[in-house]
Design brief:
Length: 231
């Protein structure tokens, strides 16, 4: 055993590289992102509306994905851009009509996502596609954590310019992670690398160029992005 450990230490794979010397990319390139809306109990209570009877889902394109420390570009078409901190599920293998009891077999792991939204366009269009699909509107990262045993018992926080704005636990999700995997897979086939974003808790807010958004989820880490004006 000692010899094997010594060999591992000498392996190039075991070499440590300072994090500040590398640029982290988005940990996955999905074919699609399927996101759930109005999926926190505290959020629907705050809005004084009835909880949805089924998940309210929409799709964000793969071209919206950026990684940790990448810029969220503020489009000229909107005057009201907001952050939405969310737990995201990353799919491991082709999933079609998956029973809820088997959902975990199709999950690679979990990461943080910022479901950036042009809320004025959302209100104007009365649907979600344009408001959530701009390039850079789906920051993901910093890693995919594969060892989470219970995704429905994690602390989630979002800081806006260092100030705590969202503070929730995924136990408040109305439709839990396994249910979402099963429900969505009965509508569309999920492919390896696809992402399911589980919804945002209360505390979303407006952002502007120069702002810094930090989304932290227990056992995963911190996803940090800065907002930039469109050139």
């Amino acid at each position: 055993m000692g010899g094997a450990l010594d060999a591992l230490k000498r392996s190039p794979r075991a070499r440590s590289i300072p994090l500040y010397t590398v640029r982290l990319l988005a940990p996955v390139t999905p074919s699609k992102i399927v996101a759930a809306g109005l999926n926190y109990g505290e959020l629907v209570r705050e809005l004084k509306i009835k909880p949805p009877k089924e998940p309210l889902i929409f799709i964000k394109p793969s071209t919206a994905v950026v990684g940790p420390n990448d810029a969220i570009v503020y489009p000229r078409q909107t005057q009201e851009l907001i952050y939405e901190g969310e737990l995201a599920i990353v799919i491991a293998r082709r999933a079609c009509r998956v029973p809820q009891s088997e959902a975990r077999r199709y999950v690679l792991g979990y990461t943080c996502m910022n479901d950036v939204t042009a809320v004025d366009l959302q209100n104007r269009d009365r649907e979600f596609t344009r408001s959530k699909s701009f390039d850079t509107f789906a920051p993901l990262g910093p890693v995919i954590e594969t060892a989470i045993e219970n995704p429905d018992a994690l602390a989630l926080t979002t800081k806006h310019n260092g100030k705590l704005r969202q503070n929730a636990r995924t136990s408040d999700l109305i439709f839990k992670s396994d249910f979402l995997v099963s429900f969505i897979s009965h509508i569309m086939t999920l492919l390896p690398g696809d992402v399911i974003s589980t919804g945002t808790p209360p505390g979303v807010g407006r952002i502007k160029p120069g702002d810094v958004i930090e989304i932290e989820i227990e056992q995963i880490g911190v996803l940090t992005n800065t907002v930039a004006a469109m050139e």
